[in-house]
Write a structure and sequence with these properties.
By secondary structure, this protein is an alpha+beta fold. It has eight helices and six strands. Strand 3 and strand 4 form a beta hairpin. GO terms for molecular function: protein-transporting ATPase activity.
Length: about 300
């Protein structure tokens, strides 16, 4: 078979690297967890629009004077003109108006504020529903692939989708980037793109398997390499097209969707990687083991890798 790169030959390093990333993610979640926004925990988020290159330390001083010890505040916006303040308390309107007034006096400008509040019950419900939504999406995708292809394709697809979602979670945990509802939307979006990439590769593998009828490990691995090569340009072009849009959102979009677009960028790379280096490798390993166990036809002559 005529293929330029032996992807299957390096399946063990690819899978080992993926396993290491998963272990790093688990460690990060245990040590520092996720930086959950007010969408998932009770509290208040206030976005004070002050002026360009705002002095966050001066803003923190004002917040401390209002009874907030070690306030969670940072600069945001394209020109660092916004002070984002988060607290676990539910602030009423008089308290928010006082903070707005004190900041206006401190900086000598008319400060505007955008507020977001979530109570504990809603926060827990949103977090639970987000997890359930991701699991349901993966389950239905697995069922569809099982009927459309076979169970090995389905399981490899589900593992790949869960890996893509977990890689995004790992990235946000490592760098303590705030997680909000847009983050969940980004994960569900990436699951869709990743599934598309994986199905394209699997569909070509199925077509080539019916046509070539591989009877040895060399033929089976060569068929997978050929299938990946035949779909590689299409996958790269698809990812690059969406990636340009996601990068534009990240660079030119507002503060509210910046983390969403960042999650898309990370997820697109993860999806492109996993469809080639994880999903296909899981399938070819599982397929060959089934063949050696005599569970698949035609029966292949004994051989080793």
């Amino acid at each position: 078979m005529n293929y330029k790169f032996d992807f299957v030959r390096f399946r063990k390093p690819f899978l080992l690297a993926s396993l290491i990333i998963v272990l790093i993610g688990i460690g990060s979640l245990f040590v520092q967890g996720l930086n959950l926004g007010v969408d998932f925990v009770s509290g208040t988020r206030l976005d004070f629009t002050v002026k360009q290159n705002v002095d966050v330390e001066k803003a923190k001083s004002v917040l401390e004077q209002n009874g907030f010890k070690h306030p969670n505040a940072r600069a945001a916006g394209d020109q660092k003109q916004v002070v984002v303040f988060r607290t676990d308390n539910i602030l009423d309107k008089p308290k928010i108006d006082k903070l707005k007034g004190d900041l206006s006096k401190e900086f000598g400008v008319n400060v505007t504020v955008q507020e977001q509040k979530v109570d504990p019950i809603i926060g827990r419900e949103l977090a639970r529903n987000a997890i359930i939504g991701i699991l349901i999406a993966c389950a239905f995708i697995g069922i569809y692939v099982a009927f459309r292809f076979e169970y090995r394709f389905a399981m490899a697809t589900v593992v790949t989708l869960l890996y893509d979602a977990f890689l995004i979670i790992t990235f946000f945990s490592l760098f303590q980037i705030e997680v909000d509802l847009f983050f969940i939307a980004a994960i569900l979006t990436i699951i869709g793109y990743s599934m598309n990439d994986t199905i394209v590769v699997f569909d070509r593998i199925r077509e080539n398997e019916e046509k070539l009828q591989p009877k040895t490990w060399e033929q089976l691995s060569g068929m997978v390499n050929l299938s990946i090569q035949q779909t590689l340009v299409r996958s790269i072009n698809t990812v690059l097209t969406v990636l340009f849009g996601a990068l534009s959102l990240f660079l030119l979009g507002g503060e509210g969707i910046r983390n969403f677009s960042l999650a898309l960028v990370v997820g697109l790379f993860a999806g492109a990687y996993s469809s080639i280096f994880i999903a296909s490798q899981i399938w070819v390993i599982w397929k060959w083991r089934s063949v050696k166990a005599g569970k698949d036809e035609p029966k292949l002559s004994p051989t080793t890798e």
